Amino acid sequence: MSTLVHCQHLSHRYGSKQVLNDISFNIEAGAPVALVGPNGAGKTTLFSLMSGFILPSEGRIEILGQPPGSMAVKNQMQVLPQDAQLDPAFNVGEQLKLYCRLQGMSPKQQQSETERVLELVSMQDSIKAKPTALSHGMRKRVAIAQALIGAPKLVLLDEATAGLDPLHARQIRELIQQLSTDITFLLSSHDLHELERLCDQVLLLEHGQLREHRIQTQTNNVRQLTLVLAKKDPQIEQKISQLTGVTEVRSLSATEILISFDTDIAADLPVTLMAVCFEQQWPFKQLTSGASLETVLFTQ
Ligand SMILES: Nc1ncnc2c1ncn2[C@@H]1O[C@H](COP(=O)(O)OP(=O)(O)OP(=O)(O)O)[C@@H](O)[C@H]1O
């Protein structure tokens, strides 16, 4: 595995305002990585530091072993800012060709690269369209195509699906997933749910501090269930922990219980659990497979 981003003891202040405080993490080539945190947590600041737009107050970042923004990194990493706009005066093909030209491509390469990236985002039919003739989701796809020019190894997308309706947001997530065989994406969002199915590694920024979480692929024989009741009490948890095959019971909130179980011993635990809820007249609301990322991050 190759290390794309190496960040050590990074801090950043705007004047006296401390935004990032001694954060360290690595990003290896592979599945998309999520950068999540509430509004104002410092996600865009971290992107700006990684792009070399601003310098850290303290600490060090290396992108592919090089300083951010250096020539050696230029074509290997692309950044799509949250508010990236297409120029309404030029058609899609003209704009993308300009970016190809800025990467030093010949006119012939500019044409073939523009066609290649538009095809990747299924927008090849819009090569001659003006941005004003495209929907918001289509413009976003074109902006993503622009970030794919030159086949970068690392692509930073700031709020890639912000402002998109659920259908278009899902299409963008699917697109990122498809492209992830060749490109490592760092995706920022303030919405944890949106990234949880896509990413294995989550960087959570809160109050300038970073918490890192790696989503464990569930082992072959251990599965998790989240049981939601209208109201729960400790006896319910105790009773569940005594069921055959249950390996761990964790209280998540006043109404939620996370249950781990061994499928070799109790493959039908979901059915058993439903039956017990019914027999015991527990105020059942919902039983879902797995645990949400929000649960994992905020109930440790
Ligand atoms: N150029 C700047 N000068 C002063 N303060 C800034 C500057 N840029 C950002 N900040 C402050 O730094 C903090 C982090 O901002 P940043 O934009 O990095 O957060 P974010 O996590 O990207 O937020 P959002 O989810 O709202 O986009 C905020 O409190 C913001 O007001």
From TrEMBL:
<dbReference type="GO" id="GO:0016887">
    <property type="term" value="F:ATP hydrolysis activity"/>
</dbReference>
<keyword id="KW-0547">Nucleotide-binding</keyword>
<feature type="domain" description="ABC transporter">
    <location>
        <begin position="5"/>
        <end position="232"/>
    </location>
</feature>
<dbReference type="InterPro" id="IPR003593">
    <property type="entry name" value="AAA+_ATPase"/>
</dbReference>
<dbReference type="Pfam" id="PF00005">
    <property type="entry name" value="ABC_tran"/>
</dbReference>
<keyword id="KW-0067">ATP-binding</keyword>
<dbReference type="InterPro" id="IPR003439">
    <property type="entry name" value="ABC_transporter-like_ATP-bd"/>
</dbReference>
<dbReference type="InterPro" id="IPR027417">
    <property type="entry name" value="P-loop_NTPase"/>
</dbReference>
<protein>
    <submittedName>
        <fullName>ABC transporter ATP-binding protein</fullName>
    </submittedName>
</protein>
<dbReference type="InterPro" id="IPR017871">
    <property type="entry name" value="ABC_transporter-like_CS"/>
</dbReference>
<comment type="similarity">
    <text>Belongs to the ABC transporter superfamily.</text>
</comment>
<dbReference type="GO" id="GO:0005524">
    <property type="term" value="F:ATP binding"/>
</dbReference>
<keyword id="KW-0813">Transport</keyword>
